[in-house]
Automatic annotation (TrEMBL):
Transmembrane segments: none annotated. It is found in: Secreted. One of its GO terms (cellular component) is extracellular region. It comes from Scophthalmus maximus (Turbot). Signal peptide: none annotated. The keyword Secreted applies. This is C1q domain-containing protein. One of its GO terms (biological process) is maintenance of synapse structure.
Length: 189
C-alpha cells in the first residue's frame, strides 16, 4: 500500500487496487440506480393497488326464495350477498358503488324474476344509473312464461366520485333464490 501512496503506479497491486476502486464506484452507482428504480416501482404498485376496483354482489344473502317490489317509484336495489368487493367501493348498506378513480369501467346487471304462475304478468326491469341518470336497462316484461331473465353489460367512462346504482323500476319486481340477480363491475383501465 505504501508503494501505491508513493506513486508507484506500475505495481501490480496498485493496478488491482485502482481497478477495484473503479469497480466499486461503478457498483455503488448501479446499486443507487437500482434502489431508485425499485422505490419507483413500489410506489407505482401502491398507487395501482389503491385504485383497484372490482365487485360482484347478488340480491339475497340466504338461499331462500324471496321477491322485492313492485314499488310505487324507482328504488335502489340493495344487494345483500357480496362475492367480492375489492377496494371496498360498493356500499352494501346503500347499494351504491362509488367510483374511486377516473377510468373505463365494465358493469354487468343480470335480473331474474318469477311471476308465480304461468300466464301471470312478469315485470322484471332494472336501470343502471350513474349519478341518477340511466346508463342502461335490463328488462323482461311479458305474460308468456312464468320465469325470465335479462342481462345488460356496458362500458362506461367515469370520473372519481361518480355514484353508480341499480334501480328497480316502478311497477317491476325481482325474485331470487340462487344468486340469479347480480350486479358486478371492475375498472378496465
Amino acid at each position: 500500500m505504501r508503494e501505491c501512496a508513493a506513486g508507484l503506479d506500475s505495481c501490480s497491486c496498485c493496478l488491482i487496487l485502482r481497478d477495484v476502486s473503479k469497480l466499486r464506484t461503478k457498483l455503488d452507482a448501479t446499486l443507487a440506480r437500482l434502489e431508485s428504480e425499485s422505490s419507483l416501482a413500489t410506489r407505482s404498485l401502491g398507487r395501482l393497488e389503491a385504485g383497484r376496483a372490482a365487485f360482484s354482489v347478488s340480491l339475497l344473502k340466504d338461499g331462500g326464495f324471496r321477491c322485492i317490489g313492485p314499488f310505487g317509484g324507482d328504488e335502489v336495489v340493495i344487494y345483500e350477498h357480496v362475492f367480492l368487493n375489492l377496494g371496498g367501493h360498493y356500499n352494501g348498506s346503500t347499494g351504491v358503488f362509488t367510483v374511486p378513480q377516473a377510468g373505463l369501467y365494465t358493469f354487468a346487471v343480470t335480473l331474474h324474476s318469477d311471476a308465480g304462475a304461468p300466464r301471470s304478468p312478469l315485470a322484471a326491469c332494472t336501470g343502471l344509473q350513474v349519478n341518477g341518470r340511466v346508463a342502461a336497462e335490463a328488462r323482461e316484461q311479458n305474460a308468456d312464461d312464468q320465469e325470465d331473465s335479462a342481462t345488460a353489460v356496458v362500458l362506461l367512462q367515469l370520473n372519481a366520485g361518480d355514484a353508480v346504482a341499480v334501480k328497480l323500476l316502478k311497477g317491476c319486481f325481482l325474485c331470487d333464490e340462487s344468486h340469479y340477480n347480480t350486479f358486478s363491475a371492475f375498472l378496465l383501465y
